[in-house]
Specification:
By secondary structure, the chain is of the alpha/beta class. The chain has a single domain (2-192), classed as Rossmann fold. It has helices spanning 11-19, 37-40, 46-49, 71-75, 80-99, 113-125, 135-142, 144-158, 173-192; strands at residues 2-5, 27-31, 58-62, 106-110, 165-169. A five-stranded parallel sheet has the order 2-3-1-4-5, with helices on one face. Helix 1 (11-19) packs across helix 9 (173-192). The longest helix is centred in the middle third of the chain and has 20 residues, at 80-99. It starts with a strand and ends with a helix.
């Protein structure tokens, strides 16, 4: 499973609802941040290949290889040639996963600017949630149009027949979580036939 989306869109909450129903011995959640020095010294997808689960197991990517065509593109952390090439690399990677027998579910959680602002302010007010809001979140919010352009390109170029994106309307967290669970069940059922 791949979870991507705007800051405060509910990726973590959706992941917790899924993993809460699973045997903890058969899955792992892989949070993706900036690459380590070791990871940066390898081919781009190497750090993700390392976490591909063996048959019968589950890996949940909290952010993913799409960072190349989103964050790295928008923030200028890689050259245009690198992020443009990444679309084909990502499609090939996902095609290999599915053809090898993996069930791949990709979710983009989207919220309105108004809902994001409300959630940001709520995080600032709530003592145990303050750690979830940083200056970087506010800075990213100012670049929303750049990220929106990158997301549209990403979905357009990487939502394939074999590995489609599910766009999740996440202004309502309960609706979003139910949609994620429903689509995930459908994908698993189709993959097990």
């Amino acid at each position: 499973m791949v979870f991507e989306g705007q800051d405060a869109a509910g990726k973590g909450g959706a992941i917790r609802r899924i993993t809460g129903a699973l045997d903890s011995r058969q899955y792992r959640v892989v949070p993706i941040g900036a690459p380590t020095e070791e990871e940066a010294a390898q081919p781009y997808l190497w750090r993700f290949w390392r976490h591909v689960p063996r048959n019968g197991w589950i890996t949940v990517f909290d952010r993913s290889w799409y960072g190349r065509v989103l964050v790295e593109r928008v923030e200028g952390f890689c050259a245009e040639a690198d992020w443009m090439r990444a679309y084909a690399e990502i499609n090939t990677f996902e095609d290999q996963l599915v053809r090898h027998g993996s069930v791949l579910a990709k979710f983009w959680l989207a919220i309105s600017p108004e809902e994001q602002l409300r959630r940001f302010k709520e995080r600032e007010k709530t003592r145990f949630k303050r750690f979830k809001i940083t200056a970087e979140d506010w800075r990213n919010r100012k670049r929303a149009k750049d990220y929106e352009r990158a997301v549209c390109d990403m979905v357009d170029r990487t939502s394939t027949q074999i590995a489609p994106w599910t766009l999740v309307e996440a202004d309502n967290k309960y609706f979003a979580r139910i949609k994620v669970l429903r689509i995930l069940c459908e994908r698993l059922e189709a993959g097990l036939k």
